[in-house]
Design brief:
heterotetramer, A alpha+beta (about 220), B alpha+beta (about 375), C mainly alpha (about 425), D mainly alpha (about 120), B: about 375 residues, three-stranded antiparallel sheet, disordered N terminus, D: 3 helices, flat
Chain lengths: ~220, ~375, ~425, ~120
C-alpha cells in the first residue's frame, strides 16, 4: 500500500504558529509514489489572493455593534463570510443570528483540532438564511476542558451534531439535553478526530478486548 | 354520524389507565428487513402505537473524516463514493467542487455539463432505488423490480463511462478524467426518451392507489418550521413546502444554464415526499434532455497541478445530493493533505427528524417513515 | 379384521380420496408456491425459478427436501410443547376443512348436511395454530404478529359469515353438494345473483387468509416474519402448508357457493357442450408444449424431466379424453370433468390472490380493522337484508327474482358509497405527528 | 347420520398424523446439530431483547375479541335461518329484520362510542 507511511504517523503534523499553519516541509511525509515531484510548484499559485481577507459589511457591523468584543474577528475566505466569536457568548450570538439576522437554519456544526494552540478546538457553525440566501460561518475557539454552550435550544438540529462533535472531539457542550456518544460505542476510549488520537493502538486494544483476537494491523 | 375529533371509550367500571398495556420496547434493526441497512431503532410502544423512539447509529462508522486527514486531496476522492453508495457520483461531485473552490480552479464548461448530466442521472438512479425500497416497505412488491430495470440502464451508462457501476469515482478534481465514450449521447438520449413513460408506469401502480394513499397521507408530517429547525434538507424539506434547492440557490456545475422546476409539497407528509421525488425525477430528466443536446466542446480538465497544495484556509461547499444538502467543509493547512474534512451528510441530519415524525404513529408507519426520509447508512455513519 | 373391513366398506372411495389428499396436498402446495413465484416473476418482469429442473419445475421438491433436512431450532425461552404443536394445529385444521369439500360430484370425503358450517368451523381453528405459535415463541415480533392475526381473523370472520349467508339464502342448504345442485337447477352461478356478497367474500376471505394486501400478521417489512419469526425448517414449512391449504379451502368454498362448484360454464345449455372437450384439448396443448420444449433443455436430465412432465400431461389428457367419450350419465365422466372444472375455478381464485398480492401495497392494521368493522360488516349486513327482501318479494309477491336482487344490490351499493364518503370525511390517520404522548 | 362422519374421523387422524410423523421421522434423518448460544435467543434484529415478550397486551385486542363473540354468534344464528328461509317466507324476513335491526342498533352504538376504532386517544 502506497499510502501506508502516512497513516502510520498520524499525529506528526508540524505546526509552527497559531492560527495560520504554514506549509509543511515538503519531503518529509510524502507518499512513496511521489518522490520529488514537489519542486515545480504550479506557477499559477505563486501569488494567490491572500485569503482570508478581513470582512467588513453591514451585517458584520450590526454584529459588532450588538456584541462588541465578543466578535473577535470577521474574515472572508474564498468569498465566504466567517465570524470569529467568543465561545462563551456563542448561544447568544446564535440566537441573534437566527432571530434578527434571519439565519434560520443550522447547516452544520463541527470542530477542527489544532493541538498546538492554547485553545485547541475551533468550533465551526455553518448557518444558512433562507430569506437572504446567504451563508455565515461562526467560529469559536474552545479549550480542551472548556464547555461551550450547546446550540440545541436554538436549533433542534444541533442535538445530534453536537453529540457527534462530542464523540469525535470530546467537546462537552453545556446544556445539551442528551450528550452521549452517537457513532462510536459508549464504552469507546478517546476521541478519534483529535490529532493526537492513536488509531493503531486504539484498534488493537478494541479488537483484542471485544473480539478476542489480535488485530491484523 | 356526528363528528367529534377525539373518541373515548367509556365502558362503565373500566379505567383505561389501569387496563393499559405494558409498554413494549422493540428493537427494529440493525438486522431488520426494512431499516435500510444497519439502522437500529428502539421503539417504545403502547400496543402498536409509538410513544417514543431512539435511533442508534454508528454500525457502519468507518471514520471517513479521519481517513481524509491521511490522504492527499486526490487520494481521498474515491472514499467519498462509499458514503452514500447509491449516489456515488453526487458525492464525488460535491467533493471535487469543494476542493476546486479551495484551489480556486475554474472547471471547463464541457466538464461542467458532463458532470451535470451524470449527476442528474445519478439522482434518478438514487430516487429509483428509494422508490423501490419504499414501496417494498409499504408492501408493494412489484415496483422495485421496475425501478431496478431502469436503474440498470443508468448504471450501464456509468459503467461504460468510467468502468464502475456503484462506486464510480467519475470525476477528478478540476474536471473529468475521461472524455465521454462514443455513443454516450445516444445512450443517455435513449434512456431519457423512454423514461417518462416509465415514471407514468410507477405512478399508475402507486399514486392513485387507495391503499398507497391511505398508507402515506398524513403519515410522518413534518411542518416547514420543524423541518428548518431540524436542519432537514432535500426532498424532505421541499415536501414540507420550503422551496429551496441548492441547484437554484447556489448554482454549481452547469445548473444555471438549464430550466427546471423545484417541486414542493404542501403537507409535509409521506405522500408529499413521494410526489416530490417523483416530480424530481421528471425534472432531472428535463435537465438531462437540455444538457445532452448541447455539450460544449473543449478541454475536460482545468488547470490543476499534479500536486495539489491549496493555500491555507477553509471552504464550505455543498451540493444538492439526491438526499439533501451534501456539504464538504475542508480546512487546508497548505500541504497536499487536507487538514480537516468535515462532511455534512444529508441522511444523518434528516434522520434526526425521525423521532418528530414517528411519534403517535403505528409500528407499520415506522417503516414508511424510515423509507420516506431516504437514508443511506453509509452516509449516516460515515 | 374382517369386522373392520366390513365397517369401512361403504366408505372405501372417500377413504381412498382421503389418503390421496393427505399424500398429494403437500406436493400441490409446493407447486402452488412455484406457481406463485412464477406469476410473481411474470408480473415483475423477470423469470423466477429456472435452475432446478426445466423452468424450475423441480424447485418445490428441492425446497421440501431442504426444509425437511434443515436444522430445527426451538428458542430457549419458548414454551416447547406449544411451540411443537402449534404448526400441527394449523395444518390439521386446514386439511380437515377439505374433508367436506366436493372436488367434483365424486371426489368428496363426506357430504355432510351441515357441510359449510363444518368447513367454516374447522378452518377457523387454524387461527389457534398461529396464535399459539406466536405466543410460545416468546418473541416480540412473533407475539405482535399473532395478536394481529387473531384480531384480523375474528374481525373478518363476521363479514365472511354474512357474505356466505347471502349465498345460503339462495341455496337453501348447508350441504356443499346441494349448493352446487341448486345452482345447476337455477341455471345461474350465485356470484351473479349476489355480486356484493361474492365481492365481500373475496375480500374478507383474503383477509382471513392473511394474504396481501392484508398480510399484516407476517408483514415482513414491519414484523420480520410475524408469528413465524422463530420457526425454521420443517415447522416453518408446516405453517406454509397450512396457509396454502387454507387458500384452497377458501377458494373451494367460494367456488362451491358462488361459482357453481364443479359445473362447467353454462351446464344447461346444449350449445356449449363443446366445452366438455376443452379440458382434454387444453392438456393436449400442454403436453405438446412439454414435448416441444424437452429437446431444447440444456442438460440431459432436464430433457428427461421435461419429457416426464409431458408424459404426465399426456396421462391427464387421456383421462379427460376418456371421460368425454363416456355416456353423459356415467359417474366417471361427471367426476373427472367436474374435478377439472372445480380445480380450474379454485386456481382462478388462487391466481387472483397472487395477482392482488403483487399489485397492492399493504394495509396498515388500523385501516384493516376499519375496513372490516366500518365497511364490510355493515355492507354485508345490508346485503343479507336486501337478498332476503328480494326473495320474499319473489316468492310471496311474484316479482321476478332478478328485479328484487338488482334493487337489493343497488341499495347495498348506495349504503357502501355512503360509508366510503363518511370514511373519507374523517381524517385518514388519527394520530397527530410530533405530539408528545 | 353419524356414519357420515366416519371418513372424516379417519381423515382427521390421517391429517394430524402426517405432519407429526414426518416431523418425528426427519428428526432422526436430518444431520444432528445442537443449537447453542445466540441461536436459541428469540430474534430481535441481533440485539438481546429487553423484557419478556409475554407482557400485558393492549386492551383493544380484548375489545375485538368480545365484539367478535357478539357478532359471530349472530352470524351463526343466521345460518339456519338462511337455510329455512324458503319455508319461513315473510315471517322469516320480518323476524330477521327485527333481529338484525337490534344488532344494527348495537353496531351503531359501538361505532359512535369509538369501540370500533383501532386507534383512539
Amino acid at each position: 500500500m502506497a499510502d501506508e507511511p502516512t497513516s502510520k504517523q498520524p499525529e506528526k503534523r508540524p505546526e509552527t504558529s497559531e492560527g495560520q499553519p504554514p506549509a509543511r516541509e515538503t519531503s518529509a511525509q510524502k507518499p512513496a509514489e511521489k518522490p520529488a515531484g514537489e519542486k515545480p510548484v504550479p506557477p499559477k499559485k505563486e501569488a494567490p489572493p491572500a485569503w482570508p481577507k478581513p470582512l467588513d459589511n453591514e451585517m458584520v457591523r450590526r454584529f459588532r455593534q450588538r456584541f462588541g468584543d465578543a466578535i473577535l474577528d470577521a474574515l472572508e475566505d474564498r468569498k465566504q463570510a466567517i465570524l470569529v466569536v467568543a465561545a462563551e457568548r456563542l448561544r447568544e450570538i446564535a440566537e441573534y443570528a437566527r432571530d434578527e439576522e434571519q439565519f434560520d437554519m443550522l447547516t452544520d456544526l463541527t470542530a477542527v483540532d489544532w493541538p498546538k494552540r492554547e485553545k485547541r478546538f475551533d468550533l465551526v457553525v455553518n448557518l444558512y438564511s433562507f430569506p437572504r440566501n446567504e451563508r455565515l460561518r461562526l467560529k469559536a475557539a474552545v479549550g480542551e476542558h472548556d464547555q461551550p454552550p450547546s446550540l440545541a435550544p436554538v436549533w433542534a438540529a444541533a442535538n445530534w451534531l453536537e453529540r457527534e462533535c462530542f464523540d469525535m472531539f470530546g467537546i462537552r457542550f453545556e446544556g445539551h439535553p442528551d450528550l452521549r456518544r452517537i457513532l462510536l460505542p459508549d464504552e469507546w476510549v478517546g476521541h478519534p478526530l483529535r490529532k493526537d488520537y492513536d488509531i493503531l493502538q486504539q484498534d488493537t486494544a478494541w479488537v483484542r478486548e471485544n473480539l478476542g483476537i489480535e488485530s491484523g494491523q | 354520524m356526528a363528528e367529534t375529533p377525539t373518541r373515548h371509550v367509556h365502558f362503565p367500571g373500566m379505567d383505561t389507565t389501569v387496563l393499559g398495556a405494558d409498554e413494549i420496547i422493540i428493537n427494529m434493526g440493525p438486522q431488520h428487513p426494512s431499516t435500510h441497512g444497519v439502522l437500529r431503532v428502539k421503539l417504545h410502544l403502547d400496543g402498536e402505537k409509538v410513544i417514543g423512539s431512539e435511533c442508534i447509529i454508528g454500525y457502519l462508522h468507518r471514520g471517513v473524516e479521519k481517513i481524509a486527514e491521511h490522504r492527499s486531496y486526490q487520494q481521498f476522492a474515491p472514499y467519498v463514493d462509499r458514503m452514500d453508495y447509491v449516489a456515488a457520483v453526487s458525492n464525488g461531485l460535491g467533493y471535487c467542487e469543494a476542493v476546486e473552490k479551495l484551489l480556486e480552479v475554474e472547471v471547463p464548461p464541457r466538464a461542467k455539463v458532463v458532470r451535470t448530466i451524470l449527476t442528474e442521472l445519478q439522482r434518478i438512479a438514487s430516487h429509483l432505488l428509494w422508490l423501490g425500497t419504499h414501496a417494498l416497505d409499504i408492501g408493494a412488491l412489484t415496483p422495485i423490480f421496475y425501478c431496478f430495470r431502469e436503474r440498470e440502464e443508468i448504471l450501464k451508462i456509468f459503467e461504460k463511462y468510467c468502468g464502475a457501476r456503484l462506486t464510480t469515482h467519475a470525476f477528478r478534481i478540476g474536471g473529468l478524467q475521461y472524455e465521454v465514450y462514443d455513443g454516450f449521447e445516444e445512450d443517455v438520449k435513449r434512456f431519457l426518451a423512454d423514461f417518462d413513460r416509465k415514471i407514468d408506469e410507477y405512478e399508475a401502480l402507486l399514486t392513485t392507489n387507495r391503499i398507497w394513499v391511505e398508507r402515506t397521507k398524513g403519515i410522518g408530517v413534518l411542518s416547514a418550521q420543524d423541518a428548518i429547525a431540524l436542519g432537514v434538507t432535500g426532498p424532505v424539506l421541499r415536501a414540507s413546502g420550503v422551496k429551496w434547492d441548492i441547484r437554484k440557490a447556489f448554482p454549481y456545475a452547469a445548473y444555471d444554464r438549464y430550466d427546471f422546476e423545484i417541486p414542493v409539497g404542501s403537507n409535509g407528509d409521506t405522500y408529499d415526499r413521494y410526489l416530490v421525488r417523483m416530480e424530481e425525477m421528471r425534472q432531472s430528466r428535463r435537465i438531462c434532455l437540455q444538457a445532452i443536446e448541447d455539450i460544449p466542446s473543449g478541454p475536460i480538465l482545468g488547470k490543476v497541478g499534479k500536486v495539489m497544495k491549496p493555500a491555507p484556509g477553509e471552504v464550505y461547499h455543498s451540493i444538492e445530493a439526491p438526499k439533501g444538502e451534501l456539504g464538504y467543509y475542508i480546512v487546508s493547512d497548505g500541504t497536499t493533505q487536507p487538514y480537516r474534512v468535515r462532511i455534512r451528510p444529508p441522511s444523518f441530519i434528516n434522520l434526526q427528524a425521525f423521532d418528530t415524525m414517528v411519534r403517535g404513529h403505528l409500528v407499520a408507519d415506522v417503516v414508511a417513515i424510515i423509507g420516506t426520509i431516504d437514508i443511506v447508512l453509509g452516509e449516516v455513519d460515515r | 379384521m374382517d369386522a373392520v373391513v366390513e365397517f369401512l366398506k361403504p366408505h372405501l372411495l372417500p377413504l381412498l380420496w382421503a389418503v390421496v389428499i393427505v399424500a398429494v396436498l403437500p406436493l400441490v402446495a409446493g407447486y402452488i408456491v412455484l406457481l406463485e413465484r412464477k406469476v410473481m416473476a411474470d408480473i415483475q418482469a423477470r423469470l423466477g425459478p429456472m435452475r432446478v429442473g426445466p423452468h424450475g419445475l423441480l424447485q418445490p421438491i428441492a425446497d421440501a427436501l431442504k426444509l425437511l433436512l434443515k436444522e430445527d431450532i426451538i428458542p430457549a425461552n419458548a414454551d416447547k410443547w406449544i411451540f411443537w404443536i402449534a404448526p400441527l394445529i394449523s395444518v390439521t385444521a386446514a386439511m380437515l376443512a377439505l374433508s367436506a369439500m366436493p372436488f367434483g360430484p365424486v371426489f368428496q370425503i363426506a357430504d355432510l348436511n351441515v357441510g359449510l358450517l363444518f368447513i367454516v368451523a374447522v378452518s377457523s381453528l387454524g387461527i389457534f395454530g398461529i396464535v399459539l405459535g406466536g405466543w410460545s415463541s416468546n418473541s416480540h415480533y412473533a407475539l405482535l404478529g399473532a395478536l394481529r392475526s387473531a384480531a384480523q381473523v375474528v374481525s373478518y370472520e363476521v363479514a365472511v359469515g354474512m357474505a356466505l349467508v347471502s349465498g345460503l339464502l339462495l341455496a337453501g342448504t348447508l350441504s356443499m353438494r346441494k349448493m352446487v345442485e341448486a345452482q345447476a337447477e337455477q341455471g345461474v352461478w350465485f356470484a351473479f345473483l349476489v355480486p356484493v356478497g361474492f365481492f365481500i367474500y373475496l375480500v374478507a376471505g383474503i383477509a382471513e387468509l392473511n394474504r396481501a394486501p392484508f398480510d399484516l400478521p407476517e408483514a415482513e417489512s414491519e414484523l420480520v416474519a410475524g408469528y413465524m419469526t422463530e420457526y425454521s425448517g420443517f415447522r416453518w414449512a408446516l405453517y406454509f402448508l397450512g396457509e396454502y391449504t387454507a387458500m384452497i379451502v377458501v377458494s373451494g368454498i367460494g367456488t362451491t357457493l358462488f361459482l357453481g362448484g364443479w359445473l362447467r360454464p353454462f351446464p344447461n345449455v346444449a350449445a356449449f357442450d363443446f366445452l366438455d372437450y376443452l379440458p382434454a384439448v387444453l392438456f393436449l396443448a400442454l403436453t405438446g408444449y412439454c414435448f416441444y420444449r424437452a429437446p431444447k433443455q440444456p442438460v440431459p436430465i432436464q430433457k428427461a424431466v421435461m419429457g416426464l412432465f409431458g408424459v404426465l400431461c399426456l396421462g391427464i389428457t387421456a383421462a379427460l379424453g376418456w371421460a368425454v367419450t363416456l355416456p353423459a350419465e356415467a359417474v366417471a365422466r361427471a367426476g373427472i370433468l367436474g374435478a377439472f372444472w372445480f380445480l380450474a375455478k379454485v386456481f382462478l381464485f388462487l391466481y387472483s390472490f397472487m395477482w392482488f398480492r403483487f399489485t397492492f401495497p399493504r394495509y396498515r392494521f388500523d385501516q384493516l380493522m376499519r375496513l372490516g368493522w366500518h365497511f364490510l360488516i355493515p355492507v354485508s349486513l345490508v346485503n343479507v337484508m336486501g337478498v332476503g327482501a328480494a326473495l320474499v318479494l319473489h316468492r310471496q309477491a311474484g316479482w321476478p327474482l332478478w328485479q328484487g336482487l338488482v334493487l337489493g344490490t343497488v341499495v347495498t351499493l348506495a349504503v357502501a358509497a355512503w360509508l366510503i364518503l363518511v370514511r373519507q370525511r374523517r381524517p385518514v390517520a388519527a394520530p397527530s405527528a410530533g405530539g408528545e404522548v | 347420520m353419524p356414519e357420515h362422519y366416519i371418513p372424516i374421523f379417519i381423515f382427521a387422524a390421517l391429517a394430524a398424523a402426517f405432519p407429526a410423523v414426518t416431523l418425528i421421522i426427519f428428526k432422526y434423518i436430518r444431520p444432528e446439530m445442537r443449537a447453542v448460544g445466540a441461536k436459541l435467543e428469540p430474534y430481535e434484529c441481533g440485539i438481546p431483547p429487553e423484557g419478556d415478550a409475554r407482557g400485558r397486551y393492549s386492551v383493544r385486542f380484548y375489545i375485538v375479541a368480545i365484539l367478535f363473540v357478539i357478532f359471530d354468534v349472530e352470524v351463526i344464528f343466521l345460518f339456519p335461518w338462511a337455510v329455512q328461509y324458503g319455508v319461513l317466507g315473510l315471517y322469516g324476513l320480518v323476524t330477521m329484520f327485527v333481529f338484525l335491526g337490534i344488532l344494527l342498533i348495537g353496531y351503531v352504538w359501538l361505532y359512535r362510542s369509538g369501540a370500533l376504532e383501532w386507534i383512539y386517544e
